[in-house]
Amino acid sequence: MIQPIFVYGQHILEQPCTDIQLESPQLQNLVNNLWDTMRNAQGCGLSAPQIGLPYNVFVIDSQNAFQAIGKGFRKRYFDAEDKGIQGIFINPQLLEVSSKMWKAEEGCLSLPSLIKGVSRPWQIKISYYNEQLEYRIQEFSGLTARMILHELDHTNGILLINHMGLLIKKYLYFKLKSIKKGRVKVSYPISTR
């Protein structure tokens, strides 16, 4: 079911999340709501706190991004054999990051209309439970790793705005104030409660 997306200024977005019990009756419904809400908003990732739940769970879709970008750009965002994924990450933990960094622009459904260039590691290793509740340790790279790190930030109470310097935050003061008050034009339902 499509849920309103919590936007900048909501306390839950600034709080670290807790792991969810794998046997929780809430889990399957949460995952379904994340997919429905993300797709409705035409996003590529969404975490539980963005729909008001304090759990360490998120979904990403880098496969759609792979298909949407031109072949010439794919080398910049994906390794040679990588075609992106559609994945569910339950109770993920970051284990390792590569020393190779790369900068790319990111947006966020909780900060509509803001785009920021962010430097992130090219490759990561994480542990998590998948949709079948199987424990996995896996490496990801490029855009998929970036999406995972962005959503991991959300589950740790870190927003895209936290990657911006003080001067930029001051410059964006009125835009952030508008987002906080729900005075933004978006195609998806938002929550400012």
Automatic annotation (TrEMBL):
Q: What span is annotated as the signal peptide, if there is one?
A: none
UniProt-listed Gene3D superfamilies: Peptide deformylase
- Entry EC no(s): 3.5.1.88
Q: Which UniProt keywords apply?
A: Hydrolase, Iron, Metal-binding, Protein biosynthesis
Provide the cofactor note recorded for this chain's UniProt entry: Binds 1 Fe(2+) ion.
Where on this chain does Fe cation bind?
A: 108, 150, 154
Which cofactor is essential here? Fe(2+)
The catalytic site is made up of 151
Tell me the enzyme class. Answer: hydrolase
Similarity comment: Belongs to the polypeptide deformylase family.
- Cited function: Removes the formyl group from the N-terminal Met of newly synthesized proteins. Requires at least a dipeptide for an efficient rate of reaction. N-terminal L-methionine is a prerequisite for activity but the enzyme has broad specificity at other positions.
The protein here is known as: Peptide deformylase
Identify the gene encoding this protein.
Answer: def
